[in-house]
From TrEMBL:
Highest taxon of source: Bacteria
Coiled-coil boundaries: none
GO molecular function: aldehyde dehydrogenase (NAD+) activity; isomerase activity
InterPro entries recorded: Epimerase_deHydtase, NAD(P)-bd_dom_sf, NAD(P)-dependent_oxidoreduct
Name of the protein in its database record: 3-beta hydroxysteroid dehydrogenase/isomerase family protein
Pfam families: Epimerase
Keywords: Isomerase
Length: 339
């Protein structure tokens, strides 16, 4: 394959990376889509759908350089995305791996690198509506995931600018949809266990991002003018929702009781702090059942301004929130019946 026909997607066995690789294989038959990941089983499924799959660890720099030979476009979706874990694991997955991808892009003279970042870098525990990309960042990131993703985003721009690679970054918030295992499925698990409590204001507003819309935004970033190199974009559905309305809708779809018991936010935060302290001391590898970050996600307003993506990339979310939730909840309900 010639260079202009080869697209490499890291994290292709993850939610966004897999959806993107499948979309590209289905819609761009004139291009070779290469997926990188560590899950061989999911890799075989991608191969059956027309994706050339390579199982590798991005911390293996030599392997990254080999697989990027002849690449025109690289989309870096791979990351360790979790609210809890050992810092060294986040550094390896989110910083070291990104360093290797960027170095290989520069060495292989890749035309465009699209880096998937996170709006988690904005999180400071306070309510924010309509956050813009130039929002002042907190002095201390909320967790190791946000901290290492911020370092990764900055190194992408600094090194790509020096190395002649056109780089863009996207900050999609709370990606969900059929096949997701992180957001609504985790809430569903808490509902089934009867341990979800209503916290804070019922009208807490948040932004979510449907998977198909994030894929569209990523494709737009891949194809964007070279003049936009160095730009970063917030991505969401552009339709803020009350998070507790979504949770109630999830409970109804799964025929589970809606959460009724309430916990004052200050008490929930105090309990979470105590649980986190216990786990850091005695069970550092086990994610606590209650986290301050989790409490804040359910009780603190956070929405994004996506005007820059609309104006510069031409981003238009084509699946609205109501349809997106319907599709996702139907799939969760089907999965529930199969188990």
């Amino acid at each position: 394959m010639t260079a202009e026909r080869r697209i490499v997607v890291t994290g292709a066995t993850g939610f966004l990376g897999g959806a993107l690789a499948r979309h590209l294989a289905a819609t761009r038959p004139w291009q070779q889509v290469v997926g990188l990941g560590r899950d061989a089983g999911r890799g075989r499924a991608l191969q059956a759908q027309g994706v050339e799959f390579h199982a590798l660890d991005l911390t293996d720099e030599a392997a990254v350089h080999r697989v990027l030979r002849g690449a025109d476009t690289v989309v870096h979706c791979a990351a360790l995305s979790s609210p809890w874990g050992r810092r060294e694991a986040f550094v390896a997955a989110n910083i070291t791996a990104t360093e290797h991808v960027v170095a290989a892009c520069i060495a292989r003279q890749v035309r465009r690198l699209v880096h998937i970042s996170t709006p988690g870098i904005y999180h400071d525990g306070a309510p924010h509506l309509g956050i813009r990309e130039d929002h002042r960042l907190p002095a201390k990131p909320v967790n190791d995931y946000a901290a290492t993703k911020l370092v990764a985003e900055r190194l992408v721009f600094e090194r790509c600018a020096a190395g002649g690679v056109s780089a863009l970054a996207l900050r999609p918030r709370a990606i969900f949809g059929p096949g997701d295992s992180a957001i609504l499925p985790r809430l569903a698990q808490a509902l089934r266990a009867g341990r979800l409590r209503r916290i804070g204001d019922e009208a807490c507003m948040v932004d979510l991002s449907y998977i198909d819309n994030v894929v569209d935004a990523t494709v737009l970033a891949m194809d964007a003018s070279w003049r936009l190199g160095g730009r970063v974009y917030n991505i969401s559905n552009g339709e803020p929702v009350a998070i507790w309305n979504v949770i109630d809708r999830l409970a109804d779809a799964l025929s589970l009781p809606r959460p009724r018991k309430r916990v004052p936010k200050p008490l929930a935060l105090a309990l979470a702090s105590a649980v986190e302290a216990f786990h850091r001391r005695f069970r550092p590898d086990a994610e606590p059942p209650l986290l301050r970050y989790g409490v804040e996600l359910l009780s603190v307003d956070m929405t994004l301004d996506i005007a820059r993506a609309r104006e510069e990339l031409g981003y238009r979310p084509r699946v609205n929130m109501d349809e997106a939730l319907d599709k996702t909840l139907r799939e969760l309900a089907r999965a529930e019946r199969r188990t």
